[in-house]
Design goal:
Radius of gyration: 27 Å
Strand order of the largest sheet: 1-4
Largest sheet: 2 strands, parallel
Strand content: 5-15%
Number of helices: 6
Distance between the termini: 8 Å
Order of helices and strands: EHHEEHHHHE
Number of strands: 4
Helix content: 25-40%
Length: about 270
């Protein structure tokens, strides 16, 4: 069984091993953040400029430009350059929506915070809120004899398929995958901040975004003080009295009395 795969049923020595691992990782939070930021600098971030309605001042779905947040030599910038040189339009790749991007919501780079979008379902008649996918543009969900057009499109596409992949699709896929990786790294950094209270990190911990009750010190103390009684100063000695509340959790097991289970986390 892989290490630390237990979740709700474990022995005290298993908890001690996992506890030590988590606390060691907390000390490395700053170095881990540095690695994440370095990888994000290597990747770069794609942002689209969305136009505003001059009469209302609200953002529209009309894309008017591309911004690369990062070095001119970052990965997505190089791929964008290659894409453009091969005749591609960078506005064709993706809508690059960042509805929960706290850096610049509602500033022309992204939709306002909390915006959600949907495409038309296969069975329903509800419209999408993405203009390019609205079923109402073809008269709603109805029979359109699309197979006639599709047959001709296939004939046109068939002899250019290889070039289509080389000059458009494969580059688009790489840009989107890198953009997804950038976002995953953002989420990983966010999780570290929330767990470690940004100890040793450049990021800022705020109770507006995170809960103190879900941080490593609080969670470790919770389980420590379940297994063993805490002293008056709040510390929990590893060999202290058995916790009064331990009986409420029969899945929290003691190690065998002969000591055979005290030196491993299996």
């Amino acid at each position: 069984m892989p290490s630390f795969t237990f979740n709700d049923t474990f022995r005290e020595s298993q908890w001690r091993a996992f506890r030590q691992f988590v606390l060691d990782e907390r000390r490395d939070a700053g170095a881990r953040e540095a690695s994440i930021l370095a990888e994000q600098r290597r990747i770069g971030k794609v942002r689209l400029l969305y136009a505003t309605d001059p009469s209302t001042g609200e953002l529209t779905q009309r894309r008017i430009g591309v911004v690369i947040d990062g070095s001119p030599t970052c990965a997505v910038a190089k791929l964008m350059q290659a894409y453009i040189l091969l005749g591609g339009n960078p506005l064709d790749i993706s809508m690059f929506l960042y509805p929960n991007d706290l850096e610049c919501p509602d500033k022309g780079f992204a939709y306002p915070v909390g915006f959600s979008y949907s495409l038309q379902g296969g069975e329903g008649d509800a419209d999408a809120n993405i203009e390019k996918y609205k079923p109402s543009r073809v008269g709603g969900t109805r029979e359109t004899q699309s197979e006639i057009i599709a047959t001709n499109m296939d004939l046109l596409r068939r002899w250019t398929r290889q070039e289509m992949y080389q000059k458009r699709i494969l580059i688009e896929e790489r840009i989107i995958k890198l953009s997804d990786l950038y976002e995953q790294l953002d989420q990983e950094r966010e999780a570290i901040v929330g767990a470690t209270q940004a100890a040793g990190m450049k990021a800022i911990y705020s109770t507006d975004r995170f809960q103190d009750g879900q941080t490593v010190p609080v969670l470790v103390y919770l389980i420590d003080s379940t297994y063993r009684e805490a002293d008056a100063d709040g510390r929990v000695p590893p060999n202290g009295e058995v916790g009064e509340s331990l009986g409420q959790f029969p899945m929290l097991l003691s190690d065998s009395e002969d000591g055979s289970e005290s030196n491993n986390a299996l």
